[in-house]
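A quick aside before the break. I want you to see a complete sequence-to-structure record at least once, exactly as it would be stored in a machine-readable document. Don't worry about memorizing anything.
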Amino acid sequence: MSNPLRKGRKADPSKDEAILEAANDLFAERGYGVSIDEIAAVAGVSKQTIYARYARKDDLLAAVIHKTAEDLVSPLSVGALPPQQALAKFGERFLEVAFSPAKIATQRLIIAEATKFPDLARAYYENGPLYVRKKLAAYIARAVDEGSLKVEDAEMAASQFLGLLIGADHVKFLMGLNSTECPGSRTYRIRAAVDAFLCIYAAQ
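That is the input. The structure line, written in tokens, reads:
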């Protein structure tokens, strides 16, 4: 899903941040039915300012999701730490997002609206889960080239690591059957996921 800024206008970072922050909070709180007028009011900008950046509401939601994904994958950037450290830092950020009440609310929203708004579901998937998995796979592929991992299918390995992180508990959070996770439990979850992953894929 495109997320164009109109050419010829210099972006104002403070307005951009305010729009994305307001949209993130209101989508999570009110659902996709929230209006651009409401988002503009909370962000302290005009509706025209939002439309100058995002042609449609689903473009705005895609931008919100993409920003979260970009922040999440920063430990995997070029020149990142070795796999044990990089994957642990990534795991910390990933679980902060995956089990965040606000992000859980957004995921419920997308699931509820997916049949009615398939383009919305696709924008969420491509800018969030798919983007993160591809960035993780790219990091794994670089680690293979550097000789620290031995992996035949980086995409599959990335999917496996994400599964190790969230386990079966993510479904409980989505269904509202669990809403808290103690820090010790999360630390153990991350360490166990990294250890299991490296047990399979660390280069000997």
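Two observations worth writing down. Residues 58-201 form a domain with the Tetracycline Repressor; domain 2 fold (CATH 1.10.357.10). The chain has one domain: 58-201. We'll return to this after the break.
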